[in-house]
Amino acid sequence: MAHRLFNIPMENSEFESEKERILLAANLNGYDEKFVYKILRKHERKRFRSNATTFKPEKEESQRVSLPFHPPNSNTIGQCIRKILSNHGLKVAYKSSNTLKDCLVSLKDKVPPEERSGIYEIPCEACSAVYIGQTRRKFKSRIKEHKNAVENNRSNESSVAAHASEFNHSIDWEKVKFKKCVRKASHLNAWESMYITTSERPLMNEDDAPIISPLFNLANKNV
């Protein structure tokens, strides 16, 4: 009902009437009003972020996930991983970790993590919670956006800002980590889902992982 409220266009009067119906239904079913308002705020922030972004996903002609080849794990667990990822339009390709390129001296300067795209982790300073996210742009640019949202109390723009505002916690910016460099946009959802699923710390993330599967725990142990 909350999803319908914030995703189906309606007049202000219709919006308020629908909102009252949700509160009434929740009350009749024994739900606390504060709990219901928290859910409504979550959906409101999600819609705001969706409407605020100017970035449009790029279409990929071929969506593949490259994993290191570790026999016999690549034959046993690999079949399960391929099946799960294929349901999300991703194909698994195995590669050797010992390549000629790795043996040769790199002629190019390495790109620092803050200039790369990939998966990152932001920890709370006051508790053990972390935020795990992905970025197709430069890592430093995305972290700057989170910082601005926290400093200006714009909880609609960032789950990190929402956590800091709701619990009055400080964010430990000095311990922000760049977890994984991911060059192809089509690989980001899979890697983010793996780090979210296998995280041993509570998460600030308001949204679920893009891909839901317990097999990511197996993949994390063998990749």
Task: Describe the protein's architecture and organization.
This protein has helices spanning 2-7, 12-28, 33-52, 73-86, 100-103, 139-151, 159-167, 188-197, 215-222; strands at residues 64-68, 91-95, 118-123, 130-135, 177-181. The chain is globular, with a radius of gyration of 21 Å. The chain is α+β, with helices and mostly antiparallel strands and 223 residues long. The chain is built from nine helices and five strands. A hairpin with a 6-residue loop joins β3 and β4 (130-135).
Per-chain topology:
Layout: H1 2-7, H2 12-28, H3 33-52, E1 64-68, H4 73-86, E2 91-95, H5 100-103, E3 118-123, E4 130-135, H6 139-151, H7 159-167, E5 177-181, H8 188-197, H9 215-222
Gyration radius, rounded: 21 Å
Please give the number of β-strands.
Answer: 5
Strand content: 5-15%
Strand order of the largest sheet: 4-3-5
Q: Helices and strands: which structural class?
A: alpha+beta
What would the principal axes of the Cα set say about the shape?
globular
N-to-C order of helices and strands: HHHEHEHEEHHEHH
Largest sheet: 3 strands, antiparallel
Q: How helix-rich are the residues, as a percent range?
A: 40-55%
How much is the average pLDDT? 78
Could you give the distance between the termini? 40 Å
Low-confidence runs: none
What labels would you give this structure?
globular, three-stranded antiparallel beta sheet, 223 residues, two-stranded parallel ribbon, 12% strand, 9 helices, alpha+beta
